[in-house]
Structures are given as structure tokens and as C-alpha cells.
Write a structure and sequence with these properties.
The protein has six helices and no strands. By secondary structure, the chain is mainly alpha-helical. Helix 1 crosses helix 4.
């Protein structure tokens, strides 16, 4: 995980409980997981549109927004990107088809 992501995770954690009027992160966290999920979904759609449109700079920008909002959602749920990284490490070397078939949904 990059230092930039760790710093952003730390800022998000520090903003928890801050004044929602002065912090975007605090305002989003104060609205709860449903609003955070809506914003995450919005950013995901914008990322997909940028990918389809083929605008690389827009794709990078939207991907940054998507990752940022994912970090907020993970924080809201008491998780960190390191938890996601561990899951990816667990899956490494396993066929995607095999991994999906082994899920207990």
C-alpha cells in the first residue's frame, strides 16, 4: 500500500467526529453508510463512463474519487484498505473462476 493512501486513511480517521460544516469527510461520515454508499456508487459510475469514453486523464481523476470514497466507506465500517489487500493476497494465484465458485454466497 502506498504512503499516499495511508496518509489519506489517517486524514479520514482524524476527520471522524470533526465539524461537518468544515470537513467534507466529516459531513459524509455524519450522514451514515447509506449516503456514503450512494456517493461511492456515483463515483463508480463516473469511473466506468470515463473508461468507456477513453479519456485517460478523466479516468485517472474519477478513479481517485472512487478510491477516496471507498476509503471513507471502509473507515465507516471499521476497515482499512489493508483488509482488502489481505483478501487480494489470499486470492492471489487462484483462478478467478475457481475463487468465484468457492464463495459461499
Amino acid at each position: 500500500m502506498t504512503n499516499t493512501i495511508r496518509r489519506i486513511e489517517n486524514v479520514i480517521a482524524a476527520r471522524r467526529g470533526s465539524d461537518p460544516g468544515s470537513s467534507y469527510v466529516a459531513s459524509l461520515l455524519a450522514k451514515g453508510d447509506r449516503k456514503i454508499a450512494e456517493k461511492l456508487g456515483e463515483e463508480a459510475i463516473e469511473t466506468v463512463i470515463a473508461a468507456i469514453d477513453g479519456d485517460k486523464s478523466e479516468l485517472v481523476s474519477e478513479s481517485a474519487d472512487l478510491l477516496f470514497h471507498l476509503l471513507i466507506m471502509l473507515n465507516e465500517k471499521g476497515l482499512a484498505l489493508a483488509d482488502v489487500e489481505k483478501e487480494l493476497e489470499r486470492r492471489e494465484g487462484i483462478s478467478g473462476h475457481e475463487e468465484k465458485a468457492n464463495r459461499s454466497d
